[in-house]
Structures are given as C-alpha cells and as structure tokens.
C-alpha cells in the first residue's frame, strides 16, 4: 500500500504558510512505515524541534485503477477517514530553501496517523463534510471538504494519471488552516462531524 498526500488544497492554509496557490495538486508520498501503529503514542523525532499537526480527511481506495475519469472516481472508494500528516516544519523549510524533496520532513516513521473509517453510504455528501482537530480539549483546526481546491473525485482522477491506484492505498486530501506545533504530553483528538475518529498522545 502507499499513502498519497495532497498539499496546498485549502486556500486558508496556503495563506497561513505564505505559499503560492498551485495550478495543479501538489502530490507527495509517504511509505507504509510512516503509519503510526494503533494505540501507540506519537514520538517527536530527535531531528526536529518544530513538528506540526495537519488534520486531513482520508480516502481508502477499494479497487485497482489507472487513468480514472472523474465521473467514475466515486466507484474507487467506499470509506472515508480522518488522520494527521505530521510535518517536521523546521526540516521542511531547510529542504524547500535548497529545492530538495520534502520526504525527510513528511515521511518519517510515525508521521501518518490513520483513524477509524466511515462507510461512504453513511455520509450525506462527501463534498460537504465538516471535520476538526482538538489539542488538549481545545479546537485548533476546523475544515469542510467543500473548501477543497480539488475535490475527492478530482484528486483521484489527477493522481491516477501518474500512479496506479491499488486496493488499500490511502489518499490524504490536504489540511485546512490552523496547523501548529505539538509538544510532549499533548493529546490530539480528531472528529468528522461529531464522530470521534482518533485519539493520540504525544511523547
């Protein structure tokens, strides 16, 4: 399986990091070793002093596809989830300055939180789905999939031009504004609407 991540898919987050608005989706990958094991805490890596949380809606691919047309993309997933794309922001900034890839800042061990899954049939509209992240019982990120620059089906169409999508692949669809630093003993809880999707502690 592979984790396909989309950057800069919410305008407010683009502004927050002072990035340019892209003309195409920004795509990067995380290996399966980046997945944080269930019921395990997230350990801040020793190579970063500024790890940020980025809460994101997830899509799990349920059949093999290549060059998928947007009008058929809905057939390639049946579950929606929520997760965190942890980012070593200080390391990412250094890499970006040098024009180098981001993987060391985005794809390290434990950098991908994958929460519970909801059957798509139980969701009224995947393109109007509210989600949020609480840090120590305070809401720090809120988003709605209606604010995506590229909606889920458009992302599937775009990504499948470059990568064959396989059963079990997960797409991280981008984060809204409100990203911020995590420190030891933080508790992070993610919600889709009012449904708790994950709860992790930081060490």
Topology:
Blueprint: E1 3-7, H1 11-16, E2 26-30, E3 51-53, E4 55-61, E5 77-85, E6 87-88, H2 89-97, H3 103-106, E7 112-119, E8 130-135, E9 138-144, H4 152-162, E10 170-172, E11 180-181, E12 187-192, E13 195-201
Kindly describe this structure.
With 203 residues, the chain is α+β, with helices and mostly antiparallel strands. The chain has one domain: Fumarylacetoacetase-like, C-terminal domain (Fumarylacetoacetate hydrolase, domain 2), CATH 3.90.850.10. Helix content is 15%, strand content 34%. It has four helices and 13 strands. It has a six-stranded mixed β-sheet with strand order 2-1-10-4-5-7, covered by helices on one side. Strands 9-8-12-13 form a four-stranded antiparallel β-sheet, with no helix packed on it. Strands 6-3-11 form a three-stranded antiparallel β-sheet. The chain is globular, with a radius of gyration of 16 Å. Residues 2-186 form the Fumarylacetoacetase-like C-terminal domain. This is 2-keto-4-pentenoate hydratase/2-oxohepta-3-ene-1,7-dioic acid hydratase in catechol pathway. InterPro entries: Fumarylacetoacetase-like_C, Fumarylacetoacetase_C_sf. Keywords: Metal-binding. Pfam families: FAA_hydrolase.
